[in-house]
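User: Predict the full complex structure for these chains.
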Amino acid sequence: MAKREYAFYPGCSSQKGASASNYLTSVESMCKTLDVKLTEIPDWNCCGASIGYAEAGELPRHVMNARNFALSEQHLPGQEMVATCAACWLGARETRERLTHSDTLMADTREALKEAGLQINEMPEIRHMVEVLIEDLGFDEMAKHVVRPLEGVKIAGYVGCQTNRPFGVAGESFENPMYLDKLVDMVGAEAIPEYDMKVTCCGGALAFSEPEKAQAQIKDIIESAYDHGAEMIVTPCPLCQANVEIYQGQINQRYGTKFNIPVLYYSQLMVVAYGGSAKDAALNGQVIKARKLEEIAAKPVKR
Amino acid sequence: MSANTAMATKYRNSFLKEVEEQVEMGDWVKMCMQCGVCAGSCPVNFQSAWEHPPQEIFMMIRAGKREEVLTSPSMWNCTSCYNCIVRCPRKLPITHIMHGLAEYAHRLGIAPKMQPTRFFSGLFWKNATKTGRVNELKLSMGLYFKDGFGAGVKEGMKMKDVALGLIKAKRLNPMELLGGHKCKDQKGIQAMLKKAYEIERSRKAAKMAG
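Assistant: Here is the predicted structure of the two-chain assembly.
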């Protein structure tokens, strides 16, 4: 039996062939090493994300998240719900908080859920994967599995917004959270705690709808990483990852820059440091190849 | 009488009251003390995109500037970064108020028509709730083709390299256009959402009548 078990909420972007499918692959490899068992919540649905607000309204948005709570409770009773996506985690947590504090909203939600034959008795705790790593396992436990330290790689920890605000990770500040830097140190790479764009917004959904505004933000985020000597950027959020990675070509055209910096998930760094292959870490899912990490992943492990 | 006229007539003496009763988290607006930390914290404000930053919107609501607030493109520039929320000394849920105002203006049909994020926001929700899960390819295509076929092809060409990079990395699947990921119980999701909209509408109507 696995050491720890959770009800897993992968979210839309983690699905096969979707924009964060490489995140999921690396999380699965990481959890195998850490003896964490994730059981997908059957038939889970979209959290609505922050950007759905024009049509979502209040109750429909919470009902969407509540459906996942009900399914989690029904199929995986007693298990905490873990999300890997920042927006899924935030959306679910916000709904849980609102339903906890409003009897009316809870009653209305229950009435709507009945239409889908579902009910809520006790809502699961909502956790982000980084919370599970930091709080349930801890850095010491995570460090035990490092067999291939990422020596000599300088990595900017880009935390972004939605894993950091409004809820954040317990014990961290909103302005200068340190957990990602600690994680970079833990895998044997060189962190940049003074990276000053670590909580700057990538523009979120505006990267689609108003790219010139979002790309101005992304440019600052990447420029600062280069200024601090970073060779890679690491993030816990699927939208941060995509926005900072895939528009570098367009930003170069717009601003005459020569950006070409890989953007990875914390889980990918951990998988390589844990002795996994490039495939286990889904490094083939990078649009901007992380050559240095690929080279390390090809080296033998120190046992 | 349009929904907008009905609301304007009902609340003719107080736009603040209208916002408090009809906008999500609207009852927080009166707590704003005009310090401006939200404006200084907003990433979009740095790019000079806001016509009115949040604290200005809040003062305009208290001053009864109904038309100017509801037709403003400002709220639609929110990136949902939540910086304003965590920094507000009065703990106003500013991000949610901005979303709430945008949603209300959209509901009344007076939000700026050509605002691209308004379009994308509606598109996202429809895309996500249609099958229960987001179809990223249809979402992007829907955005590029919003101004018709010709403009869509041009937009698509601009995005060609980004799309090809993602397809090569297996993070964008052209087959999604033919169907793609979805929930099994779509019927249940539709029924549940229909009920949620009904309840929400009747709650807002009751407030208006009360």
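Chain B touches chain A through 69 residues (CB under 8 Å).
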